[in-house]
Amino acid sequence: MGQPRQIKQPGPALPERIVAVEGRGRPITVTLEAGRLLVETLAEGFLAQGFAGGTVDMAGVVLAPFAYVMPALSKTGENAAFYSDIYRPVHAVTIDQGQMSLGRRDGKAFFHCHALWQEQDGLTHGGHLMPDETRVATTMTVEAYGVDGAIFEANPDPETNFKLFGPVSEPDHGSGAVQRCFALRLRPNQDFHAALEGFCRDHGMTSARIYGGVGSTIEARFEDGRAIRNFATEVFINHGTVAPDTTGALVAHLDVGLVDYQGQTASGVLLRGDNPVLMTFELVLADLG
Predict the structure, then answer these.
(1) Which of 75, 163, 168, 183 is 20 to 30 Å from 17 by CA-CA measure?
(2) pLDDT per position in the chain (289 positions), as tens?
(3) 3-state DSSP call for residue 15?
(4) Closest Cα to residue 33, out of 23, 48, 45?
């Protein structure tokens, strides 16, 4: 695999490389109302079930109008990478794959969402959805995971010079959830799989399921030999687990989708031990035993 890939960030690396807050959670379904801002209808649906935030599986959601950005190279050097100009597709789209972290920014409901979809040109596109410009086109229900006792909140991050989602403690909203879970943020330049496996060992989890999962990696390497060579990506986890292998060692399995800064999309199972975090990665780990 060679030397681990690293990207120099503009600020100092903080000693705490995994930020985590323990909470309680459970799977839920939430109804999205057509014509409404996605962030608003989701926040109301979560609160109705006693949660301020959590994660959402975006597969099948129909959006119009909506806006998104892709990863891009930094023009100023103030960040290791940045965002593209805003794209606003003319027609409604159905999300093929995507994940969302639902939380809070500046005291209001906010989300961090990466997804892939097809547009009128028949090509697969992907990117980072803009909460203040993304509306639901068709009323439907989505699968989600509510978290009580913790929430993702956007705060300034001196290492990356971005305002990023990270877990903070949150008062109990009366959800009645009992499953032990952790809201996590992985900081840059650490191996994705190793970080999750180590966290589970350190916190007594012999098996865990990942809910949500939104962030970026430095390039991407897949189990089947494919590689994304452009360093700036936006990634989401379609399905993820941390579970014992035949020897009893904990192994993370991460099935993802992504788009890079040239618009190239890909999906599949990431190669263990060869996918370092670029800017951030937030997710929820639910303890299965």
Answers:
(1) 75
(2) 456 799 999 999 999 999 999 999 999 999 999 999 999 999 999 999 999 999 999 999 999 999 999 999 998 999 999 999 999 999 999 999 999 999 999 999 999 999 999 999 999 999 999 999 999 999 999 999 999 999 999 999 999 999 999 999 999 888 999 999 999 999 999 999 999 999 999 999 999 999 999 999 999 999 999 999 999 999 999 999 999 999 999 999 999 999 999 999 999 999 999 999 999 999 999 999 8
(3) coil
(4) 45
Which is nearest to 116 in space by CA: 134, 102, 129, 132?
Answer: 129
Distance CA 67, CA 120 (A): 15
In 79-207, which ranges are continuous DSSP H helix?
192-202
Dist. CA 126–CA 111, nearest whole Å:
16
Task: Catalogue all structural domains in the chain, each as residue range(s) with its CATH number.
Answer: 19-171+180-287 (3.30.1330.80)
Phi/psi for 223 (5° steps) reads -60, -30
Q: What is the distance between the terminal CA atoms of the chain, rounded to a whole angstrom?
A: 32
* Residue 1 burial (C-beta neighbours within 10 Å; 0-12, 13-18, 19+): exposed
Phi, psi angles (nearest 5°) of residue 43: -60, -40
**pTM score, whole prediction:** 0.97
The secondary structure element, H or E, covering residue 39 is: helix 38-47
Secondary structure class of 272 (helix, strand, coil): coil
Calculate the CA 211 to chain-centre distance: 9
Q: Tell me the DSSP string of 197-259.
A: HHHHHHTT-SSEEEEEEEEEEEEEEBTTS-EEEEEEEEEEEEEEEEEE-TTS-EEEEEEEEEE
